[in-house]
């Protein structure tokens, strides 16, 4: 309680906004001014005037806020909070892939570095990826990266061939299709909710496939009493708050580990949040030349999401 009061005091003193992703621990989510998925966090950060934003999430999320609002100090509690998709899309190789496909439209999932964003034509999140791809003229070749599972899901759903970059989320690929089948068999009335970063053999058992906000909304609105959820378990906090009467079951991973917890999201803690607000560090920095270029595809994403038509090259 003392620590929470200290964070609230520092937040007031710094005029800081605290944003938290659904995959953070429940105590961090409860402390935040706003909790959401990647798209919601990016949208919300644009609506506020706080000079300091603390992103309880991973570094690419903090960089996204910085790119959209470069005048703000954007803190992350732990600079080691990376993401396997960022690690799987090194800039030079990703650029060579783009250069090998001239006249294509490069759609990059928001889970990528600021450098990668700067050479992308448009960014998407799992919440708006379908809308973004649909907005691209059908005669254009689409390059999609860095998540091959999301890309493959979109290809099938939209019946649109795309060139896919071979990255993956190290957390979502661990769900076991075999064990999910057994769990579904044991709970035949429980809808299976899955994030599209999961592999195809897991997605084939899903009744609902969508972003964390979409899955949360399903739990809020579907009268079922049990749900099986294939995504990072941090989201269970909001699901249980919204539906205390419902049972939320974690889709199982192979083995008996808790390896469906994102090790990067879980690097954050209340202690690190207090220290970051106290010292105003660590803060993300993005070179101004990269900010200018990376803001273009991010703003395109926000415009398409808001229903504004876009000119493509
Ligand atoms: S859950 Fe996967 S995609 Fe999300 S931050 Fe962790 S490693 Fe990256």
Give a description of the structure.
With 313 residues, this protein is an alpha/beta fold. The protein has three domains: 2-81 and 265-282, Rossmann fold; 85-169 and 291-305, Rossmann fold, CATH 3.40.50; 172-250, Rossmann fold (3-Layer(aba) Sandwich), CATH 3.40.50.10800. 42% of the residues lie in helices and 14% in strands. It is built from 15 helices and twelve strands. The strands form three sheets. A four-stranded parallel sheet has the order 2-1-3-4, sandwiched between helices. It has a four-stranded parallel sheet with strand order 6-5-7-8. α4 crosses α15 (288-305). The longest helix has 18 residues, at 288-305. The mean pLDDT is 96. The site of iron/sulfur cluster (SF4) has 14 residues, from α5. Iron/sulfur cluster is lined by residues 58, 83-85, 111, 169-172, 197, 232, 262, 264-265.
């Amino acid at each position: 309680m003392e620590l929470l009061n200290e964070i609230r005091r520092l937040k007031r003193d710094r005029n800081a906004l605290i944003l938290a992703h659904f995959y953070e621990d429940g105590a961090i989510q409860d402390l935040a001014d706003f909790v959401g998925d990647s798209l919601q966090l990016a949208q919300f950060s644009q609506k506020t005037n706080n000079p300091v934003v603390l992103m309880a999430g991973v570094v690419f999320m903090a960089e996204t806020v910085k790119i959209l609002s470069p005048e703000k100090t954007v803190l992350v509690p732990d600079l080691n909070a990376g993401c396997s998709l960022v690690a799987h899309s090194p800039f030079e190789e990703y650029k060579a892939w783009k250069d090998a496909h001239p006249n294509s439209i490069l759609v990059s999932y928001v889970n990528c570095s600021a450098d990668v964003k700067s050479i992308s034509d448009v960014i998407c999140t799992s919440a708006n990826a379908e809308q973004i791809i649909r907005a691209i003229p059908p005669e254009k070749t689409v390059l999609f990266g860095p998540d091959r599972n999301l890309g493959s899901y979109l290809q099938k759903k939209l019946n649109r061939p795309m060139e896919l970059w071979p990255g993956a989320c190290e957390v979502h690929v661990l769900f076991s299709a075999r064990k999910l089948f057994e769990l579904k068999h044991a709970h035949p009335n429980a809808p299976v909710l899955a994030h599209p970063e999961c592999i195809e053999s897991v997605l084939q058992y899903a009744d609902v496939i969508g972003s964390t906000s979409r899955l949360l909304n399903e739990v809020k609105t579907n009268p079922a009493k049990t749900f099986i959820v294939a995504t990072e378990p941090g989201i269970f906090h909001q699901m249980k708050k919204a539906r205390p009467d419902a049972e939320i079951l974690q889709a199982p991973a192979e083995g008996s580990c808790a390896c469906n917890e994102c090790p990067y999201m879980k690097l954050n803690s209340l202690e690190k949040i207090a220290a970051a607000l106290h010292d105003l560090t660590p803060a993300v920095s993005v070179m101004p030349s990269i900010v200018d270029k990376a803001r273009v595809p991010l703003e395109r994403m926000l415009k398409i999401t808001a229903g504004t038509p876009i000119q493509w090259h």
